[in-house]
């Protein structure tokens, strides 16, 4: 989102007519509530401006409305004096309420003092894959020593223990039944079955208990090199009650000799459900969702560690130190220490890391409300966008951070917290905005200033129903306020074009910058804003009338910048712009698609051959539909009858079906042509009646003859058949005689 930034000496307002709208416009906007501040006809917008501008215009200092930002302490206990107490206070103040002016930043000091005797909770999270076998033996004996060293520093310390390996699925762990029970090499007699994460010991100040519980732990194993470290960290962070985290400095020590799996790696084992960032320990304190949820991402781990004020210490071997240093860059308040081959230096490593982390103070905030921003100035005086950082802070040393809070828009009461990472103490900030004016209102519905038809609110009239106007001078009557205001809008635009006040449906126009008045039914006109030429209104050769130049005789142009002349517009034919345009400022302004210096060409125009057919017929051959009024209908054509045409532009049929050929040549103006008409038309020859009649008779005679021959043939064939039949019958009779 893009937010405009204004200085406290700027006031950008648009159509501001109330005190509330004014102070919302910007941090530099001030409202004048003096009832006599505006002149007759002046808009209430002039009441909203910078403080200096309003004072210059005569507004009394006591009548300026400029709500300041302020802070109220709700809880402000003094910082602890360095002695051990049950309720140590390291942050001051503890709770405040800010009333902010939108857009105006407010700064306050946040103090922090490292208290002596502040308790420490340390949870030791160990990798129990087989390569950490030697390290486990040493860790079993370090509990008492580690507790004693921490108590020397803080006076109060607790320690807990947990272990992890990896998900018990391929390709992370061998899923053979025997291997799941004993993932260690055959020669290893004591081996823990494969597991993801196991919580062993809640935080305690009993060193012997730590020693006994850790002594019962056995090494385990898996297949691939990366481990399920992030799975284990997420459970340690989210299982607050099970781990027993208290109001203390919270340290999480991760001891491992390998890298870590992260979000997305679970897909290799067919795990698609993302990590849900919640505690999932079963009755045996085992991570129950190890094979169902994917590994968490680094971002999820960093966010949860910061949310729970837990500071991780990565105690790793040399071969993976660089990997965890890169991880540490992504997690504020974290440190990396390099373990010796058997982890014998782990106590010194943890103590050094604790001293380093606790002396580096990083102040930040949780999720901010919308439209609220926070910045910090560190104890070294350097600005930071979202964090305050102060290094090498000793116990008992007080440091101060300047916190700046700004609300860019009006908001309701919102809450967020600010505090040092790794510490539970937080400053609770309640923030709200001052978006309503507190004016010396005269609540009197019969105020004389408002014509006894309204009351004065922040210097302006709030009219009774059925009345409106700057001083409630207009009686609405049967029309509603919207209908009256609509009469003051031209084409549903701005009321009185923004140049006047709508009073009872009539625009009362304001004065212009030059002292004259706007005019017109909607104040749309003025005589000061016409086009200029050579920095002169209307070029000094005309008068400005309603935003347009009215030129003196002999001048023309939008700014009267040209002397009237057609010298540059005369074509070879003597016509101005060939009759196809206007001559303005001695140059042709062409129309109808014509172009050129003198409007001589039209690349998109075509000859009107078909449209001119009837005129060609009457002009060239005294026939056709225009025969009776040919001069009137075809006056735009000048005909020439010719015996021969070198080329024919047009070929059109007349009413008798004859082809007329002619050429067309443009003359000045639009649709004016000289036409050359070929005197002879191409008409089709008529039919040969004699040939048609003779042919028809011959055809009839031939058909008749053929029919006679056919009938004759049929009769002959029949007679021949009868004769042969008779002849056959007569021959036997003659033989008997």
From TrEMBL:
SMART domains assigned to the protein according to its UniProt record, in alphabetical order: INB (SM00187), Integrin_B_tail (SM01242), PSI (SM00423)
Residue ranges of every copy of the Integrin beta subunit VWA domain listed in the record: 18-437
Domain (Integrin beta subunit tail) ranges: 609-688
Keywords: Cell adhesion, Cell membrane, Disulfide bond, EGF-like domain, Glycoprotein, Integrin, Magnesium, Membrane, Repeat, Signal, Transmembrane, Transmembrane helix
Transmembrane parts of this sequence: 689-711
Subcellular location: Cell membrane
Cystine pairs: 19-29, 22-59, 32-48, 184-191, 239-279, 410-650, 435-439, 458-496, 463-472, 474-488, 502-507, 504-538, 509-523, 525-530, 544-549, 546-577, 551-560, 562-569, 583-588, 585-630, 590-599, 609-618, 615-683, 634-658
InterPro entries documented for this protein: EGF_integrin_2 (IPR057073), Integrin_beta_N (IPR033760), Integrin_bsu (IPR015812), Integrin_bsu_tail (IPR012896), Integrin_bsu_tail_dom_sf (IPR036349), Integrin_bsu_VWA (IPR002369), Integrin_dom_sf (IPR032695), Integrin_I-EGF_CS (IPR057243)
Pfam families: EGF_integrin (PF23105), Integrin_B_tail (PF07965), Integrin_beta (PF00362), PSI_integrin (PF17205)
Membrane protein topology class: Single-pass type I membrane protein
GO MF entries: amyloid-beta binding; integrin binding; protein kinase binding
GO biological process: cell adhesion mediated by integrin; cell-matrix adhesion; integrin-mediated signaling pathway; leukocyte cell-cell adhesion; neutrophil chemotaxis
Primary location group: membrane
One cellular component term from this protein's GO annotations in UniProt: cell surface
PSI domain mapped to chain residues: 10-60
Family membership: Belongs to the integrin beta chain family.
The protein, known as: Integrin beta
Species the sequence originates in: Astyanax mexicanus (Blind cave fish)
Taxonomic path: Eukaryota, Metazoa, Chordata, Craniata, Vertebrata
